Every structure is written in C-alpha cells, then in structure tokens.
C-alpha cells in the first residue's frame, strides 16, 4: 500500500538571491557559499563604482572543522554555536519549510528503529525454504544450459524462470517502492556455488525487482565487490574508503534499489547500518526546519576528481510529490576523507551546512538499525527511502583456504514502473547510471574481487560509498 502522504504542492526552485546577504544569521552562513561569493563580488563592484572605495561588507571565509567520520563532540559544539547565533539574530522563531516539503512524511516508510521492538530486523526478513532454493538452483541450471555464451548481463526473468518464487520477488519490489523499503532474504549458501554461479544467482533474483541494472562507475562496472582491497593493492594512501575496512558514515548511493549479497562476513564488525530517511526528515522538520532549508538549497559543492573551472552546486535533500522528500548525497564528496582531502580550491561550506550534514548522521543513528548479515543473506532496500553506512571491520587473512574475509556483492537496480520521480537535480546522475550513456557502452562484470581494476579503487573520488 502506498504511503498515506498528502501530496505536497509542486516544488518551487530554491535559489539564493540578493536577500540572502541582507543581514541576519542566513547572511552569516550564506556568505561563504559559491553563490554568496558571487553576490558579494557583485556588491563590491557596485560599491566601488558608487564611491570609488574598496569593497562592501567584510565576509570572512573559514573552512569549518568537519571530518569524514562523524564526531559527536564536534557536532554538539557546532549545534550550540549555531543555536546561539540563531537566537541572537531572532531567527529561531521561523518554522516555515520550503515549498514542496511537507511537515511530515507518513505511511509505511516512516518507521523508526526505536519502534521496532525486540523483533527488530525480523519484521523485514524472509527465510527461503528448501523448495525456494531448489527452484533457484533449477533456474541456474536452466540458464547454464541455454545455447550460446550466456553471461550475467544476459540474465532476465525470461531466461531465469522462477514460477513460484518469482511472483513473491515481484511483491518485494513493491514493498521496496511503496512500503517500508527493506527486505532481507536468507537461505542461500554461497560456498555451494562457484563465483560465476553466485553472480548469476544474484542477477537472477534481482531481475525480478527491476528491469534495469545500473552501471556503477565511469569504468563500466556493473557489479561491485565490497572488500578490503588492501589484499591486492596494499595499504595505499589513495584507497577509496569503500574499499578499506574503515567505517562508512550514513550516505546514499546513486541508484533506486540497492542490492547486496553476502559471500562472507568479516571476522569482526562490518555490520550494515540502515536508517529510514522519513524518520530523519520528520524530526528535522519538527525541530529544526531551518536545516531543511539548508539541505534543500542548491548551494552544496561536490568535490571532483579534476578541478573544474567553476564549482557546480547541488542540493542534498530533494522533494518527491508522491512519496515525500528524500536525501541523496555522498558525505565524502562534501567533507573529503583521510585518503582524499578536499581539493584546496573547493569553496568552504558554512557552519550551517556543516551542522546540517552532521545532523543527518546524528538522527540516522538515533532512528537506525544495525544489521548483522550472515553468509548467503541478500539485503535489498530502497536507496532513496533509507540512508546506509557500515561499521568498521577486521578480517582474518586467508591461508590455504582458511580465514574470514568480508566480501559482499553489490548491484544497482531500477523498476521503471515503480521508480520514484527523479528530480531535475539528479537527472544527469541517473542517466549515467541507468541510461544509454557512454559508461554503459563499456559495461562489464568482474566476477571475482581480483578482477577489480586499480582505477576503480585508487585515485578515484567515487560519487557514492
């Protein structure tokens, strides 16, 4: 059943204008954004032309102390400073929200980990029966027996028939789009199959969730192996955080449906963390509507692999007329990380922005779940309805087949019939992932972690984690 959400008014563009620099707290925080700098330059030029003197108001750019890993102490200190400044400016009385953003998201996606009780994740878990597993293995045998050189990219509902399980998987796709947004499938044992067979099984199950697979990077990778790539490339200083054993704070990928298939777990840690975006949004809207304005404003600068002539800006929070607003952002692209500090010329964010992006993580932890997956589990969820991250982990090196090393396969899927509306600010990203883009022309599947190219792991600031 679709969320019982009153459809908000069509969203109006949120563009900073001249009023942003006219005084008050917003002027203080807006001044350091790219748009603020542009307006300031215009004012300075006007002032110089008017009186022949130097400049207008003196706005000082100071990059906030903000790290890739969330710091509760830094967040609390910054929130106290922002609260004091807002009170002094008399701006703490404004409870308005941007056009297109409702007071509350209701319906099945508006759950909180705090309300699930002792059963926790069990509410979203489906145990495959022996008959289900047998049907999956029969579909695998059918696909392998087809004439021609069939590979994972050829897997479809027609070539991977699941007469009994298939309709239930289709219902899961509806639950992901219209319900709570998460399902865990349990019951497979990856060690029974080869690496290639596991990829085909994964592609077969997820084919029933959506009709379009996403290309996950500019190199054409359709499948990602989430492992500590130090085993292949050593402790390189430029390993992307995705491919290290470090924790990943809450963020989103660039996809509709995010699918994970656990090949093996870490010796310690590595749990997924998931949090319903609706619960995070609702608490922000109720207690700090100014943060909704900050996150929805198109004033956020994403760092790039190569320094552009001008830094483009975007939002981190987007309106959706049917299902309600959602977040879509990569924290690394905004804060930098230990291995990938921000480019020196990236315009500094404001204190209000630094507080806002940390508030996402803080409320994500408050309303979230820690998901301890087991070998063979498939975690399927709506990337727009849930924020996600992971805990840090420790592997035990494999020696002659013995050891324990976290290894998770990832696919991105889209269901054209059920997909949420893509806002204009994300249309280009979604085209690169799901459209007939240049990267899709290079599409390929690396069957094993060892097949992951160096360019995928080192020297590339991924747009997601």
TrEMBL record:
Fetch the InterPro entries from UniProt: AlphaKG_dependent_hydroxylases, TauD-like_sf, TauD/TfdA-like
Q: Which domain of life is it from?
A: Eukaryota
- Keywords in alphabetical order: Oxidoreductase
UniProt entry tagged with the keyword Oxidoreductase:
yes
TauD/TfdA-like domain boundaries? 155-412
Q: Which PANTHER family match?
A: FAMILY OXIDOREDUCTASE, PUTATIVE (AFU_ORTHOLOGUE AFUA_4G13850)-RELATED (PTHR10696:SF54), GAMMA-BUTYROBETAINE HYDROXYLASE-RELATED (PTHR10696)
Q: What is this protein called?
A: TauD/TfdA-like domain-containing protein
- Organism per entry: Aspergillus lucknowensis
């Amino acid at each position: 059943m679709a969320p019982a959400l009153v459809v908000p008014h069509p969203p109006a563009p949120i563009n900073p204008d001249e009023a942003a620099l006219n005084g008050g707290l917003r002027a203080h925080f807006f001044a350091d954004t790219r748009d603020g700098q542009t307006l300031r330059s215009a004012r300075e030029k006007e002032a110089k032309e008017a009186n022949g003197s130097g400049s207008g108001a003196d706005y000082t750019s100071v990059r906030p102390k903000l790290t890739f890993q969330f710091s509760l102490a830094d967040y609390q200190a910054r929130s106290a400073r922002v609260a004091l400044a807002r009170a002094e400016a008399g701006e703490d009385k404004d409870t308005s929200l941007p056009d297109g953003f409702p007071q509350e998201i209701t319906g099945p996606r508006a759950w909180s980990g705090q309300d699930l009780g002792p059963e926790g994740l069990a509410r979203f878990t489906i145990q495959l029966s022996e008959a289900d597993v047998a049907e999956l293995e029969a579909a695998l045998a059918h696909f392998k027996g087809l004439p021609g050189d069939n590979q994972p990219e050829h897997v479809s509902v027609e070539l991977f028939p699941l007469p009994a399980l298939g309709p239930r998987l289709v219902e899961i796709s509806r639950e992901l789009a219209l319900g709570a947004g998460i399902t865990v499938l349990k019951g497979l044992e990856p060690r029974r199959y080869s690496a290639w067979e596991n990829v085909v099984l994964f592609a077969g199950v997820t084919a029933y969730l959506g009709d379009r697979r996403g290309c996950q990077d500019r190199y054409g990778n359709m499948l990602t192996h989430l492992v500590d790539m130090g085993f292949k490339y050593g402790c390189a200083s430029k390993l992307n955080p995705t491919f290290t054993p470090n924790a990943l704070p809450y963020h989103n990928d660039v996809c509709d449906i995010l699918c994970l298939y656990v090949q093996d777990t870490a010796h310690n840690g590595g749990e997924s963390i998931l949090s319903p975006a609706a619960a995070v949004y609702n608490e922000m809207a109720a207690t700090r509507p100014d943060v909704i304005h900050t996150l929805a404003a198109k004033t956020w600068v994403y760092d790039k692999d190569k320094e552009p002539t001008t830094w483009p800006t975007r939002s981190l929070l987007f309106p959706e007329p049917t299902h309600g607003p959602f977040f879509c952002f990569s924290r690394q692209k905004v804060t930098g990380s230990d291995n990938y500090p921000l480019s020196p010329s990236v315009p500094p964010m404001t204190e209000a922005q630094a507080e806002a992006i940390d508030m996402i993580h803080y409320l994500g932890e408050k309303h979230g779940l820690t998901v301890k997956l087991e070998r063979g589990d498939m975690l399927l969820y709506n990337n727009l309805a849930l924020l996600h991250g992971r805990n840090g982990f420790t592997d035990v090196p494999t020696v002659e087949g013995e050891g324990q090393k976290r290894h998770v396969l990832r696919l991105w899927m889209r269901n054209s019939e059920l997909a949420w509306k893509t806002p204009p600010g994300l249309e280009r990203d979604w085209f690169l992932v799901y459209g007939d883009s240049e990267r899709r022309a290079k599409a390929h599947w690396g069957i094993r972690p060892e097949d992951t190219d160096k360019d995928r792991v080192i020297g590339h600031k991924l747009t997601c984690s």
